[in-house]
């Protein structure tokens, strides 16, 4: 029997003379086997230094971080949210033609065989070779401020990379059941994934941290253990925007300059970065706005909300927008030739589009069942239509000329090379696909 045999061998070893034991060296004692020293290193992304940066060269076999990352991807040792980055197969294909993160397309193969990637809206690449795209994608993930990633090292050299990408959203509804918590946001779904529109996701209660509730911001992500949700930390603050004599804009929180985080509210329309409320304030001429500043666990800002002040702020913005609409002339000629010099004017088409933006905002204001986030969203969309940014989108102020026809309102030089494409895109995306101009 096994127990007898094992006991017998043990007894024999115990009774053997010491000399006989030393006279028969084992292979292990003759050539000791060295055990690799393993360790895990966690890095908080700073928004500046990605994993392929030369400052990490010493951590990779061969002395090149970029090549080391490529080699690890090839062996399936790089995982994002517990999913391996696709590798090249023996037949020259790929182990997967896409990588979805948190229900959104993150890395995918295009019809022409090139690859594209998207990391939380802000860091993107298109139509690259597979070899370039996957390395750039992993580097982009490790660049996203607010994300932590883990390196597994053996004898000081990286043998695996694991990163968890967390998205951020404003919770319009959170309901807790016996086993699961259901979280609902109004946002863009992706038809190729398991994320509907509006997005409603069920989280195992064991994966929910911080007692999220309606009207709070949350971080959420999906890995091998399912969906996870964590309530962001909120703090009451005062937001302000100032502009110096050179036109430089400074955004501040409680008097201290604000640095944009690079976590985004990817699926919560219309926000996609924490600084957007500042822009809305600037365009609509607001100052000293009381708001809640929301933080991720490492202290990274993930957004702001006005709370009970959202609806009054929307009402004030509509009044300002209506005043702008009524005080700017409409050029029937379409070129300002019929407008007195020095008088601001727009075309009839743009007048009508901005009027529609105001009407849409008013409809949301009149909806007393809307959430605070929906009031804020309406305010931001109206602010976009009113202000915008030169070179980014053409909006009300940037399509309002002086009668001389030489300048935009507020003296910004007119771009004679502008062909209207950006304006059409703006109208379509913010005022509806059926917009006629």
Could you characterize the architecture of this molecule?
The chain is α+β, with helices and mostly antiparallel strands. The chain has 10 helices and 23 strands. The protein has helices at residues 2-15, 18-22, 27-30, 65-74, 130-143, 276-283, 310-327, 348-366, 372-386, 421-431, and strands at 38-44, 78-80, 83-84, 98-101, 104-109, 115-119, 123-128, 148-154, 157-163, 167-170, 173-176, 180-185, 199-204, 208-209, 217-223, 226-231, 233-243, 249-253, 256-257, 289-295, 301-305, 329-330, 345-346. The strands form 6 sheets. Strands 1-8-9-2-3 form a 5-stranded mixed sheet. It has a 5-stranded antiparallel sheet with strand order 19-18-17-20-21. It has a 4-stranded antiparallel sheet with strand order 4-5-6-7, covered by helices on one side. A hairpin with a 5-residue loop joins strand 20 and strand 21 (301-305). Helix 6 packs across helix 9 (372-386), helix 7 (310-327) runs antiparallel to helix 8 and helix 7 packs parallel to helix 9 (372-386).
Chart the SSEs and their pairings.
Blueprint: H1 2-15, H2 18-22, H3 27-30, E1 38-44, H4 65-74, E2 78-80, E3 83-84, E4 98-101, E5 104-109, E6 115-119, E7 123-128, H5 130-143, E8 148-154, E9 157-163, E10 167-170, E11 173-176, E12 180-185, E13 199-204, E14 208-209, E15 217-223, E16 226-231, E17 233-243, E18 249-253, E19 256-257, H6 276-283, E20 289-295, E21 301-305, H7 310-327, E22 329-330, E23 345-346, H8 348-366, H9 372-386, H10 421-431
Helix pairs in contact: 4-5, 6-9, 7-8, 7-9, 8-9
């Amino acid at each position: 029997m096994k127990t007898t045999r094992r006991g017998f061998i043990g007894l024999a070893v115990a009774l053997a003379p010491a000399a006989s034991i030393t006279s028969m060296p084992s292979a292990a004692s003759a050539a000791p086997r060295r055990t690799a020293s393993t360790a895990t290193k966690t890095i908080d992304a700073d928004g500046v230094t990605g994993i392929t940066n030369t400052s990490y060269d010493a951590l990779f076999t061969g002395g090149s971080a970029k090549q080391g990352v490529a080699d690890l991807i090839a062996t399936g040792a790089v995982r994002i949210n517990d999913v391996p980055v696709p590798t090249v197969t023996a037949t020259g294909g790929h182990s997967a033609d896409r990588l979805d993160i948190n229900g959104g397309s993150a890395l995918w193969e295009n019809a022409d065989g090139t690859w594209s990637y998207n990391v939380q809206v802000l860091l993107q690449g298109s139509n690259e070779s597979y070899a370039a795209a996957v390395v750039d994608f992993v580097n982009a993930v490790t660049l996203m401020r607010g994300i932590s990633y883990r390196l597994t090292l053996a004898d000081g050299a990286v043998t695996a990379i694991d990163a968890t990408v967390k998205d951020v959203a404003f919770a319009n509804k959170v309901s807790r059941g016996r086993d699961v918590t259901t979280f609902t946001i109004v946002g863009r779904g992706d038809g190729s994934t398991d994320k509907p529109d509006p997005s409603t996701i069920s989280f195992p209660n064991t994966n929910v941290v911080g007692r999220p509730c309606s009207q709070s911001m949350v971080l959420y992500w999906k890995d091998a253990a399912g969906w996870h949700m964590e309530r962001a930390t909120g703090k009451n603050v005062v937001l302000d925007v100032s502009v110096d004599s050179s036109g430089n804009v400074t955004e501040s929180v409680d008097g201290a300059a604000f640095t944009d985080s690079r976590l985004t509210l990817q699926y919560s329309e219309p926000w996609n970065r924490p600084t957007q409320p500042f822009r809305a304030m600037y365009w609509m001429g607001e100052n000293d706005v009381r708001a809640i500043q929301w933080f991720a666990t490492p202290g990274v800002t993930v957004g702001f909300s006005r709370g009970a002040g959202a609806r009054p702020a929307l009402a004030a913005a509509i009044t300002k927008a209506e005043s702008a609409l009524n005080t700017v002339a409409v050029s029937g000629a379409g070129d300002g030739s019929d407008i007195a010099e020095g008088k601001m004017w727009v075309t009839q088409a743009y007048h009508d589009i901005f009027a529609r933006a105001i009407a849409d905002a008013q409809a949301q204001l009149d909806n007393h069942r809307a959430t605070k986030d929906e009031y804020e969203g309406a305010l931001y969309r109206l602010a976009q239509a009113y202000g915008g940014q030169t070179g980014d989108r053409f909006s009300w102020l940037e399509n309002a000329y002086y009668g001389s026809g030489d300048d935009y309102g507020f003296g910004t030089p007119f771009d004679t090379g502008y062909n209207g494409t950006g304006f059409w895109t703006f109208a379509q995306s913010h005022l509806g696909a059926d917009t006629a101009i």
